[in-house]
Design a protein that fits this description.
The protein is an alpha+beta fold. 21% of the residues lie in helices and 39% in strands. The N and C termini lie far apart (54 Å).
């Protein structure tokens, strides 16, 4: 009588199947955080906010300085044929320590430069050294919407900027893991 031997079961996953374990929205957030982490004086920026990039961190009365906090907020989608055109709101807060001799003019200048750093970093693909509003091919585009200056004292002075962006990206209808083909 023949002896039956169990055959091993082999699972084969293609690279596209492995990529589909992370939703497109998360991939976009990862690219944005990587780009914002480059905001450092040693990389040619005005501030060092990129040395501490957090996602969705709750900030109390006195934010850590320098720091940068980013989160994805509201999202809406419009179905077009077999795809969904998604519009995602991204909020970015960045903070720098003030100085004892800061004047309102110098604080405003610092805040404008901090905002300029974010606007430059978020559009710049540091790997290829070129402007890339597609966020490494994940998005149709990213658009700067608005910013606000915030100032504080407790116990030291600090300057902050809160910025809002809008990212448009396309997914396969009903599948947030797959970008358009």
């Amino acid at each position: 009588m023949a002896t039956l031997r169990p055959h091993p079961v082999i699972f084969r996953l293609s690279l596209t199947e492995l990529e589909d374990t992370v939703i497109v929205r998360e991939k976009i957030m990862d690219v944005i955080k990587q780009r914002l982490a480059r905001i450092q004086i040693t990389n040619g920026y005005y501030c060092d906010c990129g040395t501490d990039v957090q996602e969705g961190k709750l900030v109390g009365l006195t934010p850590p300085t320098p720091s940068l906090n980013v989160w994805d907020g509201g999202e809406n989608a419009e179905r077009v044929h077999r795809t969904e055109i998604n519009t995602l709101t991204i909020t970015i807060e960045l903070y720098e320590k003030g100085t004892a001799t800061a004047t309102s003019e110098s604080i405003a200048r610092v805040a404008r430069r901090m905002g300029a750093d974010v606007r430059r970093a978020i559009m710049w693909n540091h790997n290829y050294e070129k402007v890339d509003p597609s966020l490494d091919g994940l998005a149709e585009g990213i658009k700067y919407k608005a910013s606000d200056l915030v100032l504080g004292f407790n116990p030291e002075s600090w300057t902050g900027v809160i910025m809002e962006y809008e990212v448009t990206y396309i997914t396969i209808s009903g599948n947030p893991f797959r970008s358009k083909e």
